[in-house]
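Quarterly update, task 2.4: nickel (II) ion-bound model.
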Amino acid sequence: MKITFLGHASLAIEVAGKNIIVDPFISGNELAKNIDLNLLKADYILITHAHQDHVLDVEIIAKRTRAKLVSNFEIVNHYGDLGIEGHPMNHGGSWQFDFGKLTYTNAIHTSSFADGTYGGQPGGFILETKEGNIYIAGDTALTMDMQLIPMQTNLDLAILPIGDNFTMGIDSAIIASDFVKCSRVLGYHYDTFGYIEIDHKKAMSSFKNKNKELILLDIGGECLV
Ligand code: NI
Ligand code: MN
């Protein structure tokens, strides 16, 4: 499995011969101007919640690629009204897709579209594949529910928000890493705006001091699972 960081909370995942885009927010991210939206391949688009910094480019990518959306019921309905096909899920549910199994997990956050309409309850995803298992936390606080994840899945990588203010910060992400029993963490949701700028050196050393690995990718950078 190859994961490419597209900036903010946007990811491109290649697994089992399929291309998956997560929470595309590229055209609105000045830091991601080296990413060409028109070149992104997508068989599926996963959406954790309806906030603008997670869905801005969903429509443009879905209409070009005919990718299938996977998200909560309300978000899939919203895009269904725009003629975009999707697979609705809700918390605690799993579905076997052709690339692997997805579970929609709890997240503590909010979820509304830019116009204020209801975007269902926010979530994250566990992705279990023959090439490895990952947790994409979405925007969330540290939550005790994370302790349920390793009871069901052995993770190879946890993708956690680390920017603080709107989500967990570094110290909470370290505890989250304990909760999900995965010491290899890819940080996301940081540096995009003033509220979530982080000190990279301090973040790296905080993880290292707990014998954990924090991966911070350049935009366009890749990591393998
Ligand atoms: Ni959000
Ligand atoms: Mn966000």
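Highlight for this quarter: Helices lie at 52-55, 58-65, 73-80, 149-152, 170-179, 200-209.
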